[in-house]
Design a protein that fits this description.
mainly alpha; 88% helix
């Protein structure tokens, strides 16, 4: 039960990150976190085979998040460079 809930949430998070939907990814990761907390409270454990699948999904989320972060950093860097260039022309 926990494995299915986690897999669904992680899949939604990875898909959202790949689509550039940070709020959607955050919501899905919140679902994953809540599912973990609830499972822990019930004493549930994940089977080794399911754990391997969940680990792969989590890695996919991490890779997608890294790509999204790199895209954001590049955009911020470009905006900063443009601002500096424009301000250089505005100096008396």
């Amino acid at each position: 039960m926990i494995a299915e809930a986690l897999a669904g949430a992680l899949e939604r998070a990875a898909t959202a990150l790949e689509a550039g939907d940070a709020p959607g990814a955050a919501a899905a990761m919140g679902e994953a976190s809540r599912a973990c907390q609830e499972a822990e409270a019930r004493g549930e454990r994940v089977a080794p085979a399911a754990l391997a699948e969940l680990t792969a999904l989590h890695a996919r989320c991490g890779q997608s998040a890294a790509r999204a972060r790199a895209t954001l950093e590049q955009a911020l860097e470009s905006a900063g460079a443009a601002r500096r260039a424009v301000s250089a022309y505005r100096r008396p």
